[in-house]
Structure formats: C-alpha cells, structure tokens
Amino acid sequence: MLGIKSLSFSEIQKKIERKRIMFDLSKSQKAFAEAVQLLPGGVNSPARAFGAVGGNPIFIDHAEGVRLFDVDGNEYIDYVGSWGPMILGHGHPYVTQALEKVLHSGTSFGAPTLWESELAKIVIDAVESVEMVRFVNSGTEATMSAIRLARGATGRDKIVKFAGNYHGHVDSLLVAAGSAAATFSVPNSPGVTEGTSRDTVILAYNDVPGLLSLFEKCGSEIAAVIFEPVVGNMGCVIMSPEFCDALTFVQKTYGTLLICDEVMTGFRVAYAGAQSLLGLRPDITTFGKIIGGGLPVGAYGGRRDIMQNILPAGKVYQAGTLSGNPLAMTAGIATLKTLREMNPYPYLERLGTQLVDGVLSAAKKHRIPLCANRVGAMMTFFFQDGPVTDWETAARSDTARFAEYFWKMIHQGVYFPCSQFEALFLSAAHTEDDISRTVAAAEKAFTEIVNK
Ligand code: KE4
Question: What is the pTM of this model?
Fold first, then answer.
C-alpha cells in the first residue's frame, strides 16, 4: 500500500476527499449486525441507538481528549462526552494515573473504604445544601432512592415531576400526563403498573400557575417535587426565576421536599451545581455522571435530618453491592479535585458562547430556523424559531431537519448527540480551533441543506 509520504500533494488531497465522501462505516455496520443478535436493539441503552436520526449507531474504538475514534478509523470532535461525565475530556492523565495507582489494590471489597469518605467530603464541601451523601451506582438509583427517602421522611405518597424532565428509568417516573392532565399520570412504558403511576403527577415545566393550583388542591399530600434545575432531557431548557421562586414557595408553605436532580448539571454548569446559579436550597440533591469521572457512580445527598432516615441510620431501605467501589470513587475524586483546582467554568462559558454564536449566525445566513438554549457547557440547538421553555415548545422542533443536520455533521467529523431532545456538552479539552471547525462544519451542513 503506497505510504502517504510517497504520494504527491494532489494525490493526498484526492485520498482525503475520497475518504470524506466514502466515509466508511462498514465495520460499525458489521459490529451492529452482530450486536442486535446479542443485545436488545444492539445497545445497552436506547439513548445511543440513533433511533431519532435513522441509520445505525457508530461503534467507538477509543477516545482521547476531545477526540472519538470509531472502529472504522474515523475521527470525531466529541460533543456527547458519554452524555455528560467527560467534562475533562477522555483519558485525562490525572484520572487515568489515579486509577492505575489503585487498580492493583483490589477492585471491590463490599466493605467501607477511605475513598468513599474522601469523595463524600468533596461533594459535601462543594454543594452547600448537601450535609450527608450516599453513593449508589447510577443516576437512576440515585433518583429512585431519593424518592423513597422523601416518601419515608414525610409519610406522604404523591410525587410531582415535569414533562420533558428525565430522571432515569424509575418506575414511578416513567409516566405520561394522565387523561385528567395535571391530576393523574399513566404509565408510559409496559411493565409500569397503574398503581405505581397513580401517585405521580406531571406538570409543565416553568408553569407557575399549574404548580401553585396543584398545591392549593393537594399540597399536604405531596412528598416531593423532583426536577432538573437546568433541563437536559428535552434538549436544554432553562428554569425561569419565577418558577424557581414558586418551587421554594411550595417547599416552605407545604413542607414538600425539593429533589434537585443534578445528575447532569452537577459539577457541569458550575462546581456547586445548577442550584448555586438558581439560588435554590433543595432538601435532597441527586448526582451522577461527572462525580464518577466516567465510571458507574450515582449519589443522593442533602439535609442531615432527612438523610439520617436511610438504613442503617434510619428505616428507609437502600443498598448496593458495588456502591462506593474503589475504582469509581477514585475516578470521581480525581475528576472533582481537578475541576476544583482547574476551575474550567469561565473557559467553558467562553467556548460555549463562541459555539452558539457561530452556529446561530451560520443558520441565520441560510435562513434556517434555529434557536439555542445554553447554560455554561451544556446546550441545545433547536430547529425552530423558539423560544423553547418547556416540553410543548420543544416538541415543535423540526426533528427531520435535525436528523439531516446530525448526519452531515457526522460526515464532517463532528459527533453531536443523536437526538433533538438531548443536550450537547463541552469539555475542558475542547479548543477554540475545535469550535471554529465545528462552526465551519455547521455552515457547510446548512449550505447543503438549503441547496439540496
Ligand atoms: P443514569 O441512570 O443513566 O446514570 O442516570 C439517569 C439520569 C437521571 N437524571 C438525569 C437528569 C439524567 O439526565 C439521567 C440520564 N441522562 C441520559 C441522557 N439524557 C443518559 C443517557 C442514557 O440513558 O443512555
């Protein structure tokens, strides 16, 4: 095979052009054909199945910094970051070196270790409302446990959540607005029973009158309100100051606990979490993603008097074989310590502004309806004029155009989340050059879309 060194400049150009046009994904296709025989839908989580954009998922071989490399050797600028955890970029040396040091000490003991207390101290020190914390193995476990804790601590049954907010695959939260809108919910997945969904009420996000009128009706029966402080799961949606105040009002007036789901926003939008930007003081906060540095970790924490209800301190049951395991704790400690010392948030704010301004101006130039919501290093471009303030407005987006745009970006080596209703993430490993290349790729994608 002729090495690249022996080719003339024009031959190299042709090679690059051919690769770009061909954009070979054949090994991913082959891998997917095998995977669908082994795993339902060929994946271990539907979010990565490319269901919303068509085609088959791309199989990743390895990653470094902000770069993903798939099994066909294609290279991408990564804006998914494993759906949030990789805020330092992939394979950060502080994380990998910390793991290498611990690896030979044993991977799990099923007994307390110093690592758990060390990570607990870092989280408690970072988030003012968190006085105690319990580690679990996923964000879902964290929210599921937080809901059980809220019900156990208040003796109440009802839970309120918001349309377009996702808190993991917890039975009682896999619900859709019931026929009577804001009174009952109905299961939105087979396997979730009517009984489970009956105690969950769904409201519209940012709907202050809806929240207040529900509480006037049955506030004394409501154990907790669970919410994303900055939504990532209908695409990025920002909480209005009025809605933030209304949450605090019902917390103080009805004794309902606020469960602030910071699985995505924790250490993402600010070191002290989205609650520090909103001026919220939740009773319980859930964490995941970044606190594990890419290894499986979740956590829930909050007021000491509430957390002391958890077994064995109290009577609310929750347990887990691998909770607090040494490797995940180590990755989390290294990640959070690096964030604390590095403080990448001003840099991420600057990069986020450049990306949004660049892509929006490219869309405007081509008269493509596009708006964006961004908080720090998490954001979403919605294919519509906007504004997007809740699920109803988010759902107006042109998802077919999003899918077209997604693949045009993939073919230019830019890996965006595979759904209009997800957030994209920047990491400290992204550079201004990455942003410029991404804006240029968006410009090219928009040109192709309008000229097709
Ligand atoms: P996990 O169980 O996936 O660790 O966390 C559930 C969860 C809880 N709360 C919030 C706010 C979340 O965003 C999530 C999970 N986020 C999705 C992406 N939107 C994870 C991707 C996936 O499910 O594969």
Answer: 0.94
